[in-house]
C-alpha cells in the first residue's frame, strides 16, 4: 500500500457523475478531507448526497475527475479500498432474518477477520453499542435505533480508516441518535477515524468539524460550522408579541419581504432576515401591537436557508391554502370544542400492553403532537384513532363519533398521511388524485373541482402526467398531503410526515399545515423530529404505552427543567431529560 | 482459513439460515416439490379409465347383450344404459357421459342375415385426447366381441393379419411412471431458477447487496455464495423426488442413480445460471419471480416433453423447445428411469445441458454488477 503522509482520507478532484435515467447528479465536485474528524454532508433532497457517498465508497465510478482515498485511486484500486473504507447504506445493510450475532459473524467472515481477533472485536462493539443482551434477537425485530447501531457495528468490524454513513439517523429517536454520536466521537478520538456522513438534521451537522453544503449536484460551501455562522451573523432574531399567538405572528412574518425564514421556537418566533436589512417590526401589525425583538446567535440552519434561498426565487410558495372543511372555520374561538377524545384506552397485543389507560383531548383547530421513542405506543394510538385497530378497553371519539360503532363514518371525516406517503407509484399524479377522490366517494363534478384545487394549491401542474414514484421527495410529500385532503376532512392525521425531508421542504410543509389549522382543521401529528414539536400547540410524550408528559411545548420544557442544572432550551433536550428521569427505555 | 474460504463460508451460512427462516423460501424449496409429487403421483393421470359411456340398445337380443357385456367387463368403461338415443344425447350434452354406443333395433336381425350390422359411436370431441382413447377402446371391445362371436358360431374370424402388440419399458402403461420422473426437472427448476432469482432480487430490494459489495467480497464470491447453497438444496430436492418416486410411487428405476445425479448436476447448473441471470436483469422480487416463472418454470412444464409429447408439437414450437434446458433433462430422466442407461439418449442430451450450463453461468458472471450500476 502506498500511503504518503500527506494523503487525504478522501479527495475528489473535479468529479462529475450522471445517470442514464435521471441525468446529471454531481457536477465538478472538489473535496478534500484531512485524516481524522467528522464531516457532515448536508443539502436538500436530490442534492446528490447519496451519489457522493457511493462514489467515495467505490460503489459507483465517476464519469469525469478523480477520487482518491489515502492515496489510492477509486477506479484502479477498488479491491484495496474496500478494506480501508467502511460504508453504511441508508437501510443499514442488515440481514433482517439473521440474529445480531449472525450478522456480525457474517461481516467478520466477509472482512476476513481472523478467529482469534474476532471475540475481542465483538466484545468491544457490543459494549460500545449496548447490544450485548440482544445477541440472539433477529435484526428485523430490533427497533430502528438498535438496527442503526448494529449496522454501524457491522461496518466497524473491519476498523475502517474512512467511515461513510448515509443518513444514519433518519427515523431514529433522539436517544438513539445521541448514542450514535457518542460512538462516532469515540471512534474519532481513539482510532483517528475519518468520518463523512450525510444528514438532514442541522443540529448534527453543527457538531462536525466541517460541513459540506450540496445543492443540485454542486457544492455551495464547505467550511467549519463557525464560518457558516458568520454568513448569517446579525440576521437572527427571536420575535414575540404579547397579544398575538406565535403561529399568527409567524404567518405574518413569513409573508414579509425581508424575512428569509421564520419558525416557532422556544416560545417565540425565530426569524432570519436578509443580510443587511433592518425590518421595522412595528409596521408588521398596523394597530397598537408591539413586537418584541431580541437578537440571537446564528446557527447552521440559518446559513443553510440563506445560501439556498439565494439560488431559488422563493423559499416556499407562500400562497395561502384556501380550504373550507365541513363545519370548520366558523368555530375558531378559544373554546376549543374537543374533536378528538380519548378516554382510558388500553390496547393489548397478546400479553403485551402497547397502550396503557391513555386519555387526552384535542380541540378544533389545534395542532397536537404525539411524541415518543420507537415502541412507545405512538403508532398503535394512531391506528386506533384512524379506526384501523379497535381499542381493547376505553372509548375513542373522533368528530363526535364513537370509533367502536361508527368507524367508517368517522374515517370519512379524517384525512391520513403516512411517512411512506401511501401513493401508487405506477400511477401518474393526476391518476393518484383521481383515485383518492373516488375512494372518498366524491362525485364527478366535485372531483374535477378538487383536483383542480389540489393541482393549483400544491404546484403539481408540471408533474401532472409523471408517475408518482419518479417525483422528488418533496413533491411526493405534497401529493400525499393533497390526496389526504381531497375530501376536505376536518381532522388530519400525519404520521412522521417529514421523516428524511430537508429543512426547506419541511418549512414549506409546516407553512401549509399552519394555514390548515388556522382554518379550523384539527391536526394530529407524530414525529421524531423534536424541533417540529415546537410547531405544535400541545404535545403528548409517550413512553412504554404511558403518558410521560403532556402540555404546551413551554410547559414541557419547564417541567423537564426541574432538578436539572443545565438549562433546557430545545425540545430535544427536554425529551431526553424526561425519558432519562423516567428510567431506562426498553428498546 | 484463507480470506476466500472465510468469505464463502460466511455467505453460505447466511444463505442457509435465511432459507431456513423464511417461510416463502421453505415453501418453494420443500413444500412445493412435495405437493407437486403427491399431485402428479396420486392425482393426475393421463390414462382413460372408467370412462362413463352411454349404451343405447334399442332391441335386446343375445348378440346385443353379449356386445354390451364387453363394455361392462372392461376396466376402461363405466357404462350406463339409456332407453333411447335422445336421452343419451342429453346426457352427453350435460357432460355426464363421454360417448354413446348405439345398437339399432335391427342389429340382431341384420347380423343373423349376415348383412352389415352397423354400430353407431358418438364421442364428445371437446377433450380430443380422451375421445381418441375412447374410440380406440371401443374398437378394441368390438374387435374382441367379433372374434368371440365368430368362434361361438364355429368359424374363425376372417382376419388375415393379426396384431400382436408388446409394450416395452412401461409395460403396465402407467402414466405415473412417466410423469413422476419428468416432474423432477420441474422441481429442480423451481429451486434452481425461481428461488435463486428471488433471493438475489431480495438482496437488491432490501439494500443488503449495496452493503455486501462495499466489503472486500468479489463478484465471483457473491455468485458462488449463491450457487453452492442452492445447488445443494436443488440436489436435495432431486434426491427427495427420486426417493418418493421409487419408494412411494413404485416407479421402476431401470438405470443407475449416478447417471441421474450427474445429469441432475448439469441441469441444475443451467437452471442456477438462468436464475442468476434473471436476478441481474430484475432487481425486484416481483419482477424476478414473474420472469422466472415465464422463462423457466412454465417451459419446463409445457415445452419439456414432461406432459406433452414434443414430436407432436408444430415444427416452430419444436424448435423453441431446443432452448428449454428441461427438455434435455426430461429425456434423460424418462430414459434412465424406464429404459435404463441408454447412452445414445443420455450422452447427446447431457452434452446439450453442459453447453447450456456453461453458457448461462458464463453470462451471469460476465453480466454480474461489480458496482451499483
From TrEMBL, chain A:
GO molecular function: ATP binding
Superkingdom assignment: Bacteria
Keywords assigned by UniProt, alphabetized: ATP-binding, Nucleotide-binding
Domain ABC transporter residues, every copy: 10-241, 340-569
InterPro entries, alphabetized: AAA+_ATPase, ABC_transporter-like_ATP-bd, ABC_transporter-like_CS, P-loop_NTPase
Protein name: ATP-binding cassette domain-containing protein
Organism encoding this protein: Methylomonas aurea
TrEMBL record, chain B:
Alphabetized UniProt keyword annotations: Cell membrane, Membrane, Transmembrane, Transmembrane helix, Transport
Statement: the UniProt record of this protein carries the keyword Cell cycle: no
Keyword DNA-binding part of the UniProt annotation: no
Segments forming domain ABC transmembrane type-2: 131-371
Places the protein is found: Cell membrane
InterPro entries listed in its UniProt record: ABC-2_transporter_component (IPR051449), ABC2_TM (IPR013525), ABC2_TM_bact-type (IPR047817)
Chief location of this protein within or outside the cell: membrane
Transmembrane segments: 26-44, 178-201, 230-249, 256-281, 287-308, 320-340, 346-366
Membrane topology: Multi-pass membrane protein
Similarity comment: family membership: Belongs to the ABC-2 integral membrane protein family.
Xref: PANTHER family: MEMBRANE COMPONENT OF ABC TRANSPORTER YHHJ-RELATED, MULTIDRUG ABC TRANSPORTER PERMEASE YBHS-RELATED
Descriptive protein name: ABC transporter permease
Amino acid at each position: 500500500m502506498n500511503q504518503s503522509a500527506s494523503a487525504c482520507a478522501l479527495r475528489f478532484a473535479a468529479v462529475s457523475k450522471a445517470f442514464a435515467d435521471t441525468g446529471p447528479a454531481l457536477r465538478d465536485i472538489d473535496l478534500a478531507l484531512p485524516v481524522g474528524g467528522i464531516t457532515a454532508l448536508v443539502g436538500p433532497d436530490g442534492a446528490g448526497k447519496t451519489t457522493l457517498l457511493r462514489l467515495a465508497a467505490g460503489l459507483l465510478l465517476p464519469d469525469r475527475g478523480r477520487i482518491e482515498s489515502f492515496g489510492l485511486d477509486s477506479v484502479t484500486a477498488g479491491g484495496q479500498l474496500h478494506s480501508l473504507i467502511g460504508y453504511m447504506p441508508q437501510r443499514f445493510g442488515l440481514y433482517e432474518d439473521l440474529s445480531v450475532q449472525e450478522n456480525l459473524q457474517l461481516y467478520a467472515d466477509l472482512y476476513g477477520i481472523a478467529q482469534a481477533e474476532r471475540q475481542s472485536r465483538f466484545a468491544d462493539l457490543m459494549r460500545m453499542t449496548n447490544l450485548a443482551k440482544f445477541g440472539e434477537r433477529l435484526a428485523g425485530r430490533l427497533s430502528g435505533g438498535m438496527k442503526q447501531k448494529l449496522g454501524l457495528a457491522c461496518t466497524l468490524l473491519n476498523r475502517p480508516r474512512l467511515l461513510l454513513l448515509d443518513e444514519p439517523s433518519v427515523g431514529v429517536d433522539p436517544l438513539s441518535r445521541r448514542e450514535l454520536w457518542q460512538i462516532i466521537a469515540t471512534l474519532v478520538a481513539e482510532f483517528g477515524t475519518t468520518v463523512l456522513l450525510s444528514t438532514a438534521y442541522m443540529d448534527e451537522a453543527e457538531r462536525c468539524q466541517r460541513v459540506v453544503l450540496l445543492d443540485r449536484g454542486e457544492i455551495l460551501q464547505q467550511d467549519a460550522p463557525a464560518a457558516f455562522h458568520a454568513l448569517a451573523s446579525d440576521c437572527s432574531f427571536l420575535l414575540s408579541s404579547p397579544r398575538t399567538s406565535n403561529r399568527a405572528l409567524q404567518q405574518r412574518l413569513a409573508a414579509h419581504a425581508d424575512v428569509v425564514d421564520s419558525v416557532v421556537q422556544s416560545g417565540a418566533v425565530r426569524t432570519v432576515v436578509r443580510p443587511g436589512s433592518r425590518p421595522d417590526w412595528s409596521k408588521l401589525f398596523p394597530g397598537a401591537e408591539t413586537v418584541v425583538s431580541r437578537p440571537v446567535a446564528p446557527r447552521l440552519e440559518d446559513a443553510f436557508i440563506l445560501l439556498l434561498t439565494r439560488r431559488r426565487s422563493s423559499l416556499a410558495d407562500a400562497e395561502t391554502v384556501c380550504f373550507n372543511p365541513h363545519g370548520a372555520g366558523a368555530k375558531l374561538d378559544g373554546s376549543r370544542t374537543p374533536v378528538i377524545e380519548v378516554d382510558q384506552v388500553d390496547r393489548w397485543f397478546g400479553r403485551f400492553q402497547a397502550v396503557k389507560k391513555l386519555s387526552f383531548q384535542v380541540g378544533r383547530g389545534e395542532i397536537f403532537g404525539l411524541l415518543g421513542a420507537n415502541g412507545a405506543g405512538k403508532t398503535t394510538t394512531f391506528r386506533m384513532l384512524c379506526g384501523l385497530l379497535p381499542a381493547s378497553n376505553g372509548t375513542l371519539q373522533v368528530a363526535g363519533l364513537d370509533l367502536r360503532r361508527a368507524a367508517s363514518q368517522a374515517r370519512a371525516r379524517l384525512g391520513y398521511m403516512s411517512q411512506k406517503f401511501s401513493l401508487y407509484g405506477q400511477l401518474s399524479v393526476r391518476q393518484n388524485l383521481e383515485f383518492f377522490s373516488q375512494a372518498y366517494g366524491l362525485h364527478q363534478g366535485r372531483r374535477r373541482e378538487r383536483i383542480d384545487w389540489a393541482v393549483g394549491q400544491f404546484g403539481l401542474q408540471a408533474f401532472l402526467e409523471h408517475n408518482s414514484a419518479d417525483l422528488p421527495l418533496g413533491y411526493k410529500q405534497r401529493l400525499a398531503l393533497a390526496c389526504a385532503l381531497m375530501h376536505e376532512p376536518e381532522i388530519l392525521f400525519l404520521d412522521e410526515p417529514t421523516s428524511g425531508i430537508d429543512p426547506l421542504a419541511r418549512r414549506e410543509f409546516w407553512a401549509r399545515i399552519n394555514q390548515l389549522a388556522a382554518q379550523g382543521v384539527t391536526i394530529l401529528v407524530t414525529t421524531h423530529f423534536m424541533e417540529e414539536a415546537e410547531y405544535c400547540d400541545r404535545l403528548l410524550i409517550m413512553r412504554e404505552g404511558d403518558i410521560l408528559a403532556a402540555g404546551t411545548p413551554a410547559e414541557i420544557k419547564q417541567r423537564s427543567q426541574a432538578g436539572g442544572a443545565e438549562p433546557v432550551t430545545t425540545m430535544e433536550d427536554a425529551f431526553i431529560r424526561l425519558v432519562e428521569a423516567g428510567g431506562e427505555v426498553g428498546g | 482459513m484463507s480470506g476466500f474460504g472465510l468469505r464463502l463460508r460466511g455467505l453460505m451460512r447466511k444463505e442457509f439460515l435465511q432459507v431456513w427462516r423464511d417461510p416463502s423460501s421453505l415453501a418453494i424449496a420443500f413444500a412445493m416439490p412435495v405437493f407437486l409429487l403427491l399431485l402428479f403421483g396420486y392425482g393426475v393421470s393421463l390414462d382413460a379409465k372408467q370412462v362413463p359411456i352411454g349404451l343405447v340398445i334399442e332391441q335386446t337380443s343375445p348378440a346385443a347383450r353379449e356386445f354390451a357385456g364387453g363394455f361392462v367387463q372392461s376396466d376402461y368403461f363405466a357404462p350406463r344404459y339409456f332407453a333411447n338415443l335422445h336421452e343419451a344425447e342429453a346426457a352427453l350434452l350435460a357432460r355426464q357421459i363421454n360417448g354413446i354406443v348405439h345398437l339399432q333395433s335391427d342389429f340382431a336381425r341384420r347380423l343373423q342375415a349376415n348383412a352389415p350390422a352397423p354400430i353407431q359411436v358418438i364421442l364428445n370431441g371437446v377433450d380430443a385426447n380422451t375421445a381418441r382413447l375412447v374410440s380406440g377402446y371401443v374398437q378394441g371391445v368390438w374387435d374382441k366381441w367379433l372374434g368371440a362371436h365368430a368362434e361361438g358360431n364355429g368359424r374363425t374370424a376372417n382376419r388375415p393379419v393379426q396384431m400382436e402388440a408388446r409394450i416395452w419399458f412401461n409395460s403396465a402403461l402407467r402414466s405415473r411412471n412417466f410423469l413422476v420422473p419428468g416432474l423432477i426437472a420441474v422441481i429442480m427448476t423451481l429451486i434452481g431458477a425461481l428461488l435463486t432469482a428471488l433471493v438475489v432480487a431480495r438482496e437488491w430490494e432490501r439494500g443488503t447487496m449495496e452493503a455486501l459489495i462495499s466489503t472486500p467480497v468479489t463478484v465471483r464470491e457473491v455468485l458462488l455464495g449463491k450457487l453452492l447453497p442452492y445447488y445443494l438444496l436443488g440436489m436435495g430436492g432431486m434426491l427427495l423426488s427420486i426417493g418418493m418416486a421409487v419408494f412411494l410411487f413404485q416407479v421402476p428405476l431401470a438405470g443407475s442413480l449416478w447417471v441421474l445425479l450427474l445429469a441432475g448436476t448439469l441441469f441444475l447448473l443451467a437452471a442456477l445460471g438462468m436464475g442468476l441471470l434473471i436476478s441481474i436483469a430484475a432487481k425486484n422480487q416481483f419482477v424476478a419471480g414473474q420472469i422466472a416463472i415465464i422463462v423457466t418454470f412454465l417451459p419446463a412444464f409445457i415445452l419439456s416433453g414432461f406432459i406433452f409429447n414434443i414430436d407432436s408439437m408444430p415444427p416452430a414450437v419444436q424448435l423453441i423447445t431446443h432452448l428449454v434446458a428441461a427438455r434435455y433433462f426430461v429425456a434423460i430422466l424418462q430414459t434412465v428411469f424406464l429404459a435404463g442407461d441408454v447412452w445414445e439418449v443420455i450422452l447427446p442430451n447431457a452434452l446439450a445441458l453442459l453447453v447450456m450450463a456453461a453458457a448461462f453461468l458464463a453470462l451471469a458472471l460476465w453480466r454480474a454488477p461489480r458496482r451499483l450500476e
